[in-house]
Amino acid sequence: MRHKSLISSIVEFVTEPFTGGRNQQAPDIALMILFGAMILFGLLMLSSATTVIAFQVEGDSYFYLKHQLLRGVIPGLILFLIAIRTPYHFWKKMAFWMLVVSVVLLLLVLIPSFGEVHGGAMRWIKVGPISFQPSEIVKITFLIYLATWLEKKGVRGLHDVEYGTIPFLSIIGIIAILFLKQPDLGTLLVILAISFLLYFIAGAPWKYIFTILGASFLILLVLILSSPYRADRLKTFLSGGDLLGEGYHINQAKIAIGSGGIFGLGLGQSQQKYRYLPEVQGDSIFAIMAEEMGFIVSAVFIGLFLVILIKGFNIARGSPDEFGRLLAAGITIWFVIQAVVNLGAMMGLLPLTGITLPLISYGGSSFAISLFAVGILLNISKYSKRRV
């Protein structure tokens, strides 16, 4: 009997989030299926894109796929179930402590005994056999805090420079300084984009928004020009760069995308993954996707993010309170902005930033936290009055 009770409890824990309850409806099943299909397709593409580098570097053709399943999918599904079961208002109560966690994690990564260096940047925390990227956790913790803070200030508060604008810039400034210390300008740009768009959605005046954006652009330009490798990336974007030097990465990505044609070379048939194209497991995975699957599949894949944008904003508009509206909008903006930055860089429309493709690129921390965010968005959809 106890055995049956345990099994029943597990089954109830897994299935309950997908049914309606008191004061709530079933979550947006269509959006859930869309995310599920994207995840399965991403695992398929990760397996195909990394077979060569995984075998040459790790001696196991499925090394990256196994690690994604172990460190990303499994913890991510647990976080997803927790998030979709937990009423989203709970995270509002935890907002301040989430801000504290964000700052502490970004400080810990700078301490040599905790931080781990990869590629000249200290962006990982390693504790025994476990390593993770604090920046991925900060994306959701800071977003929850920001949604809570903006709701508390209200439209009237955001029109007051001392009460709204200066505190907003101060909070953003602290997070920005900590990210620049790593350095991780790419992730910082995503967080800034989310923050400014939420600031606008919450009702901040246009004149404040344009002033902040203008000042941010000037600061960003200084940061880029004062850093040789960032300046090289901008120069490469503007001029194309040396095909065997600074422009190698983007040119190999263009070759991969162009080689795919309309229908692609076929799953597993990429030539660029044979160590021609760098970072096939990370920010370059879309180029391998386009090479193997072709224009039509790639266009459909890009279209999925447009669907996410529409459905996410509809969930936000139908949210019963301002916190839910801002949080749903923020999560939606996060996924779409990150996808736009990654896809734009691979197609030569934006400079390379190292930003990965959500739910597709390799990275346990990113994958798990993204699934957590999906769970929160679907939980908000249970209460939303406007869904398509």
TrEMBL record:
<dbReference type="InterPro" id="IPR001182">
    <property type="entry name" value="FtsW/RodA"/>
</dbReference>
<feature type="transmembrane region" description="Helical">
    <location>
        <begin position="209"/>
        <end position="229"/>
    </location>
</feature>
<dbReference type="Pfam" id="PF01098">
    <property type="entry name" value="FTSW_RODA_SPOVE"/>
</dbReference>
<feature type="transmembrane region" description="Helical">
    <location>
        <begin position="185"/>
        <end position="202"/>
    </location>
</feature>
<dbReference type="GO" id="GO:0051301">
    <property type="term" value="P:cell division"/>
</dbReference>
<feature type="transmembrane region" description="Helical">
    <location>
        <begin position="359"/>
        <end position="380"/>
    </location>
</feature>
<keyword id="KW-0961">Cell wall biogenesis/degradation</keyword>
<dbReference type="InterPro" id="IPR018365">
    <property type="entry name" value="Cell_cycle_FtsW-rel_CS"/>
</dbReference>
<comment type="similarity">
    <text>Belongs to the SEDS family. FtsW subfamily.</text>
</comment>
<keyword id="KW-0133">Cell shape</keyword>
<keyword id="KW-0131">Cell cycle</keyword>
<dbReference type="GO" id="GO:0009252">
    <property type="term" value="P:peptidoglycan biosynthetic process"/>
</dbReference>
<feature type="transmembrane region" description="Helical">
    <location>
        <begin position="127"/>
        <end position="149"/>
    </location>
</feature>
<protein>
    <recommendedName>
        <fullName>Probable peptidoglycan glycosyltransferase FtsW</fullName>
        <ecNumber>2.4.99.28</ecNumber>
    </recommendedName>
</protein>
<feature type="transmembrane region" description="Helical">
    <location>
        <begin position="161"/>
        <end position="179"/>
    </location>
</feature>
<dbReference type="GO" id="GO:0032153">
    <property type="term" value="C:cell division site"/>
</dbReference>
<dbReference type="InterPro" id="IPR013437">
    <property type="entry name" value="FtsW"/>
</dbReference>
<dbReference type="GO" id="GO:0005886">
    <property type="term" value="C:plasma membrane"/>
</dbReference>
<keyword id="KW-0132">Cell division</keyword>
<keyword id="KW-1133">Transmembrane helix</keyword>
<keyword id="KW-0808">Transferase</keyword>
<keyword id="KW-0472">Membrane</keyword>
<feature type="transmembrane region" description="Helical">
    <location>
        <begin position="95"/>
        <end position="115"/>
    </location>
</feature>
<feature type="transmembrane region" description="Helical">
    <location>
        <begin position="69"/>
        <end position="88"/>
    </location>
</feature>
<dbReference type="GO" id="GO:0015648">
    <property type="term" value="F:lipid-linked peptidoglycan transporter activity"/>
</dbReference>
<comment type="pathway">
    <text>Cell wall biogenesis; peptidoglycan biosynthesis.</text>
</comment>
<feature type="transmembrane region" description="Helical">
    <location>
        <begin position="29"/>
        <end position="57"/>
    </location>
</feature>
<dbReference type="GO" id="GO:0008955">
    <property type="term" value="F:peptidoglycan glycosyltransferase activity"/>
</dbReference>
<dbReference type="GO" id="GO:0008360">
    <property type="term" value="P:regulation of cell shape"/>
</dbReference>
<dbReference type="GO" id="GO:0071555">
    <property type="term" value="P:cell wall organization"/>
</dbReference>
<keyword id="KW-0812">Transmembrane</keyword>
<keyword id="KW-0573">Peptidoglycan synthesis</keyword>
<feature type="transmembrane region" description="Helical">
    <location>
        <begin position="326"/>
        <end position="347"/>
    </location>
</feature>
<keyword id="KW-1003">Cell membrane</keyword>
<keyword id="KW-0328">Glycosyltransferase</keyword>
<feature type="transmembrane region" description="Helical">
    <location>
        <begin position="293"/>
        <end position="314"/>
    </location>
</feature>
